[in-house]
């Protein structure tokens, strides 16, 4: 009787250890999948921004050389995508366009109101690009939204792809999320330009930052409403 009890205890312990190992393996795979999903954001957005701030702030390089250096990775990624996969890397191309616009706008000088207004040009370029992409095959903001909803879970990733391929309502919500952010950024640009030519220069010197922070806040609040609906669909389909 004691032998049977001991054997059962050993079996239970082995089963528990196997279950723990399986759970750890599942968590590791989920983490790896989530990191892989976030890689495009890191490579196409974070790396160029990091290069720019390191060159401009840390190394003391001028605006144009810093922007040129930060454009290297997006340029390579854009060309590589076209040549190797016959696809257009939206995030890399967007960063390349923004940097190019920054270099072009750096030539503008003299009129303080024009200097204030040009700061909104970058927001408008990003916003318009996001709006245009919303009517394409894969909206730009999907690259940032999907990893946070899927969370590295294979069933959710598969559910997202199924819904994106077969549900018009899901694609509409996915499009709406990008339209929200694109519209907010364009509105911020309009407010900045109007303010630059109607308000005192001293006021716009600090109010421009307020406009940007407010735009991001509105984007988060309005975007979360759409994101919650998308998440509900994905989770329900994955179960």
From TrEMBL:
Keyword Transmembrane among record annotations: yes
Top-level division of the source organism's lineage: Bacteria
Keywords: Membrane, Transmembrane, Transmembrane helix
TM regions (residue ranges): 88-108, 120-136, 179-199, 205-227
Protein name according to UniProt: DUF3159 domain-containing protein
Organism from which the protein derives: Kitasatospora arboriphila
